[in-house]
């Protein structure tokens, strides 16, 4: 054991044993060192941590996870009615995902021929098409130049009766009532149940 030299008030040197860095916790039975019990977190702290993890996971899956970017093929909501409206990536299954990004590219090239919504960000262009689901009913969302899910009995509702992938020709739709897109090739067959 290390010792330190010290002096009495009388000037006589004496030795002081060095202190150990670890406190003596005493000995248990059989010469084993007794350990202090671990403290547990209160239930409210465990619940707060669990909620925090859930919120981070939710935000990651909704806004960051693959498949929720604004690249072609992914879906989004749009806020605003001009060409530079705000685009928020969402899962295509989200009820608020009113658009699918059909293509991205140079704004000088423009969108393919069809009823695409164009969004510009500097020199970049995103061509958007509706994110319609077969059997779903939609009504105009004029504020955001979009369609939103609606009750099929709404006065301006349209129903998507069929989605045809791989074609842009609406001829197979009943009465030819459809909306065709060449990129990616898809046709939405439509009817107006409220009329």
Automatic annotation (TrEMBL):
It comes from the Bacteria. Keywords: Membrane, Transmembrane, Transmembrane helix. The chain crosses the membrane at residues 43-65. Residues 1-13 have a biased composition (Basic and acidic residues). Residues 1-34 are annotated as: Disordered. The keyword Transmembrane helix applies. This is Uncharacterized protein.
């Amino acid at each position: 054991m290390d010792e330190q030299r010290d002096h009495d008030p009388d000037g006589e040197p004496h030795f002081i044993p060095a202190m150990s860095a670890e406190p003596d916790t005493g000995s248990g039975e059989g010469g084993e060192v007794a350990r202090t019990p671990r403290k547990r977190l209160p239930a409210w702290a465990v619940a707060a941590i669990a909620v925090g993890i859930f919120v981070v996971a939710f935000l990651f899956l909704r806004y960051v996870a693959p498949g929720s970017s604004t690249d072609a093929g992914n879906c989004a909501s749009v806020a605003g009615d001009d060409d530079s409206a705000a685009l928020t990536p969402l899962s295509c299954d989200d009820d608020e995902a009113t658009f699918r990004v059909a293509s991205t590219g140079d704004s000088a090239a423009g969108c393919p021929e069809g009823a695409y919504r164009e969004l510009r960000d500097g020199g970049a262009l995103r061509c958007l098409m509706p994110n319609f689901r077969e059997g779903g009913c939609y009504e105009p969302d004029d504020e955001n130049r979009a369609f939103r899910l609606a009750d099929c009995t709404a006065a301006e509702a349209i129903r998507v009766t069929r989605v045809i992938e791989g074609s842009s020709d609406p001829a197979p739709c009943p009465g030819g009532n459809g909306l065709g897109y060449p990129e990616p090739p898809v046709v939405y067959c439509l009817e107006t149940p409220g009329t």
